[in-house]
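> forwarded from #structure-qc
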């Protein structure tokens, strides 16, 4: 499914919620400030910016994007505000190397569970 299908659905049914639209291209990368960006190309375009937290994990964990079990030094804690309020935060454990993580993740579908239905970023 490509963007043209999404555009046609939105043209015919303009109130269609994003979770009912076909999945668009998912981008997963680090920006120049070190944040992890998960973005679904639209329309509508969904974007989530995750702030890295300092330090490393002391024990092995599972990355929530690629779902691999890795050492604590290969992973990091990231957070983002939810519900438009800076005091409500969601924390995630993700690979520090986003390129390696994306190469091990299942195409597109893996990152969809990380994108909330409405994104305020």
């Amino acid at each position: 499914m490509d963007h043209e299908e999404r555009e046609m659905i939105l043209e015919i049914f303009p109130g269609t919620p994003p979770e009912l639209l076909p999945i668009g291209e998912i981008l997963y990368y680090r920006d120049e400030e070190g944040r992890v960006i998960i973005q679904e190309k639209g329309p509508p375009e969904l974007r989530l910016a995750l702030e890295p937290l300092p330090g490393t994990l002391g024990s092995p964990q599972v990355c929530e994007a690629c779902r691999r079990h890795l050492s604590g030094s290969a992973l990091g804690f990231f957070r983002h505000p939810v519900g438009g309020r800076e005091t409500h935060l969601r924390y995630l454990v993700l690979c520090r190397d986003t390129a390696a993580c994306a190469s091990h993740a299942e195409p597109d579908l893996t990152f969809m569970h990380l994108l909330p239905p409405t994104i305020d970023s």
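QC bot note: Helices lie at 3-12, 98-104, 109-112. DSSP finds three helices and seven strands in the chain.
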